Amino acid sequence: MAVRGLTKRFGARLALDRITFELYPGEVVAVIGPNGAGKTTLLSILAGVLEPTEGEVTRADGKRFGWVPQEPGLYSKLSVAENLRLFARLERTADPDQTVNAMLNQTGLEDRADEEVGRLSGGNQQRVNIAIGLLCEPPALLLDEPSASLDPRQRERLWEFIGGLAARGTTILFSTHNVAEAERYAGRVLVLGDGELLFSGTPAEFEQAVQPRNQTAGDFETAFVRFLDEHGH
Amino acid sequence: MRWLLVKDLQILKRSPLLVGLLVVYPVVIALMIGFALSSPPGKPKVALYDAVPTGRGHVNIGNQQIDIAHYANQLFESITPIRVSSRAEAIAKVRDGKAQAALIIPADIISQINNLITQGTGNPTVELFLNSRDPLERQFAQQAITARANQVEQGISKQDLQKVLNGGTLNFAGQSVPLLGLKNSRAIVQGTIASLAPDSQLRPALKQVVDFADLAVTGLGFATPVLGSIGSPLTVKQIELAGKTTPTASYAATIAVIVSLMFVGMLLAAAMLALERSEHAYSRLVRGLIKPEGLLSEKVLLAAGAAAAVTLAMSAFVSLFVHLEWVRFPLWVAALVLGGLAFAALGVAIGGVARDVSVASLMAFVVSLPIAFIALVPGDAVSGTLKSILDAVAFVFPFKAALQAAANAFTGSAPGIGWPLVHLAVLTLVFGALARVAMRRFA
């Protein structure tokens, strides 16, 4: 996937400013940045929820990306299986029932298939949220703050699951406030500040980019904060 | 869209309390409004033109005089009279909506009554012009006037018979004719019999006269109430000034049905659209799975279908007690479906600006009541400028058009159903477009 000169304006406010980057199969990429940096706007445009003001997104095979919004986009009065079946039908999958069963199996939700989503824990709701994003067997999965509402154990399971997807060739692009999580799970980070793409590279490259001028930098998060300070964000 | 409809029906099925409230509450409110509108609102305003010259408003029956003014005062207990100086002015008051009816008493009403009493000829007639634009007001005015007219009739008939029994003076062919009366006749004949010799040959014949008088007095005594009730010396000639009228009960039922249609259509559409936002599913749906217009259409169809189904069932039930014309059933469906679509479109416009289900429901409820009341304000209850403003407001919302369409569908009342249906279709498109604009805030 290639993103070229992506710009988004909300009235007079510039939310994204000529963002350009590429993604490759099986890559796990984190988008980090302070509040209001444009992370959700970027993912929403890539997901097709928002239209860019300028620029273009090129998909290698033309397939739609999987989309996992920050708030689980689920119907709380429907069961897990009913939610999956609804979106499988809307995605026009060849065999909705088979797809649902496969996704229940993949996300370990078979035992909860008939339970109303509103009664599930936050972690299980997020699993259903991700399962819906994967229904169309997308080449890339976009996750907006996927671990924000999860406890440490649920986070661990989530990243284990996402790692498995990446290992099978699915490209993962996720946004997060948790820079340690980005350092730990992402192969590459995109640093946004006020709509600008300030850095693109591996976490190690990012630390090296900051540390030579700041010898006291002790960890990734400190390096991130100093990087933003240096760039006036 | 089919799968979204199935999904929404599943959600509604699992929300029995919500669905119950959504159906029962509007029906209860609608029935309460219907009952309230069926009750008289007070004295109707009636333009009164009394052409009888001053001092000539008496009818002589026997030796008694009936003062027409006495009965007029009784009439004024039931109406608020607006005295006018001509027949044309009285009619103009009704046409302008300043009076609900006009009562015209012709100048020769006294001679008409006298002719009926003394010669048995003629048919004394007063004219009653009714404003048929509002069937409720029309019936209140009609009831108030005809009830008093019946009292006048009964009063005149009773007094007439009393003169035959007790004696008096009758105007006959322009002459005052003394009437002895049956009781006086019997007393005179009985006195005559008493004065005759016991063996007088006149006694048996006069005794027969006394026996006849006894029978007649007794018979008329029993007959008075009966004759009084069936005698109709006064005819009220009713004239409609506008088109065909809707019977009041049917009109009240129509209002109840349309209020229910409005509540179900608006609340359901607003809530179901807002649900997509509060469940955060909207962004997932519109990224290629369904277009926003498709989502809006689905909500409008769902709400309109539910509202039409509920109100059709309600209409069928109401028709057990109130006259609704089943032969016009296809028009019932057309009126309720198009009305439901317009209300549902208004509902999604409201749901488009609300952030969650509870806010959307509250907004729909708050908006719906003024819309209904504005459409129901009688034209003659407000000044000309305010009336124009209320008419304009009622025009841009679906209630009035839906009410006209349903009233015509149920009873064939004026105006016709074509224009209201077109009006509702246009409002559906306009509110649908507004909802689409409002949905830009969703993403």
Please, could you describe this protein's structure?
The complex is a heterodimer of chains A (233) and B (443). Chain A is α/β, with parallel strands linked by helices. Chain A is 37% helix and 24% strand. Chain A has a six-stranded mixed sheet, with helices on both faces. In chain A, strands 2-1-4 form a three-stranded antiparallel sheet, covered by helices on one side. In chain A, strand 1 (2-10) and strand 2 form a beta hairpin. In chain A, helix 2 crosses helix 3 (96-107), helix 3 (96-107) packs across helix 4 (122-133) and helix 7 (203-210) packs across helix 8 (220-230). The longest helix of chain A has 16 residues, at 152-167. Chain A is globular, with a radius of gyration of 18 Å. Chain B is elongated, with a radius of gyration of 33 Å. Chain B has a five-stranded mixed sheet, with helices on both faces. In chain B, strands 2-3 form a two-stranded antiparallel ribbon. In chain B, strands 7-8 form a two-stranded antiparallel ribbon. Chain B starts with a helix and ends in a 5-residue tail after the last helix. Helix content of chain B is 66%, strand content 10%. Chain B is built from 16 helices and nine strands. Classes of the chains: A alpha/beta (233), B alpha/beta (443). At the A-B interface, helix 2 of A face helix 1 and helix 10 of B.
